[in-house]
Amino acid sequence: MAGNIKEINDTGLSSRYQTKTQRLIKRDGSFNVRKTGIGKFESFNLYHFLVNISWTRFLFLALVLYVLINFFFSVLYCLDGPENLGVEAGKGYIHGFLNAFFFSAQTLTTVGFGRINPHDNWTNIIATLEAGIGLMAFAIATGLLYGRFSRPVTNIKFSSNAIFTDWGENGKALQFRVANSYSTEMIDAEVQVIASWLEKDNQGTDVRRFYNLNLEYKKIVFFPTVWTVNHIIDEISPLYGKTDEDLTAGEAEFLILFKAYDDTFAQTVNARFSYRHDDLLWGVKFKRAIFIDEKGKSFVALDKMSDVEKAVT
């Protein structure tokens, strides 16, 4: 490899390599790293968990917690005696428990229809405790909902594969595509690509090296359509002279960091992605993904941004 190609060491990822590795960055953009040597609860943050899980899981957990709290207080009301809630006596335990459960739901949410109400001191104490817990629970739920809605969310779409295609006269280039799937407006979009593969060190040990790839355009002002990111493979490129077999043997992976300013959230958002050696296509080119309709208006076919065709040399 040419001597003027500089390895980068500030990626935050280890160069040590001992066994066959999986991809460094998963398809969802998260790092494929598992942490050990620390207690399970030390590495767990409830707020981060509740803010980052899917809406389906969040609403399901909220419903389960709501039912469990009401069930717990219903048992307390029943132990004190359903008759102390002013409901009809002699209609069975299930009838008394259901009335206690519905009264618990009214107290927890501070609705208070008035048909059922405490008739002794212990029932009043339990209801007072539940009302306080309800106020705090709904305050926490409000904060979590705000945190989930206000958190910047992106839907940056990357092409299914990166490609090695012809460029210029007898030249090659590494390309992939990126697009914003949301209708939000983004500006000052920037991409950084880091190539990584295994090499032998002076002791003959396999280590993972990282190299920054120079891009034809690493930053664009406007980002309304599909951006084809292009790295020209010339004499100063770390990919110069590399073949498909070389990248496969070296377990090559291309790490991608995308950043842009989102007008909706009024802040910079980012996305991560990676292509492994088995995600690379050779001797092809991307098909057209930007079209003009009959009225002369441009439109982007995001479902076609990964389509390729055989390149004609």
Structural summary, described in words:
The protein has 313 residues and is an alpha+beta fold. It folds into two domains: 46-150, Orthogonal Bundle (Helix Hairpins); 156-310, Immunoglobulin-like (Sandwich). It has helices at residues 46-52, 55-80, 93-108, 121-150, 244-249; strands spanning 156-158, 162-167, 171-180, 186-200, 206-212, 219-222, 227-233, 253-262, 267-276, 280-282, 284-286, 290-292, 298-300, 308-310. Strand 8 and strand 9 (267-276) form a beta hairpin. Helix 1 (46-52) packs across helix 4 (121-150) and helix 2 (55-80) packs across helix 3 (93-108). The longest helix has 30 residues, at 121-150. The model has no long low-confidence stretch (mean pLDDT 84).
Could you give the distance between the termini? 27 Å
Rg: 29 Å
Helical percentage: 25-40%
Might you state the CATH topology name of the largest domain? Immunoglobulin-like
SSE string, helices as H and strands as E:
HHHHEEEEEEEHEEEEEEE
Report the strand count. 14
How many helices? Answer: 5
Structural class: alpha+beta
Write a brief caption for the model:
The chain has 313 residues and is an alpha+beta fold.
Topology:
Blueprint (H helix, E strand, L loop, with lengths): L45 H7 L2 H26 L12 H16 L12 H30 L5 E3 L3 E6 L3 E10 L5 E15 L5 E7 L6 E4 L4 E7 L10 H6 L3 E10 L4 E10 L3 E3 L1 E3 L3 E3 L5 E3 L7 E3 L3
Parallel strand pairs: 2-10
Antiparallel strand pairs: 1-3, 2-3, 3-7, 4-5, 4-6, 4-8, 8-9, 11-14, 12-13
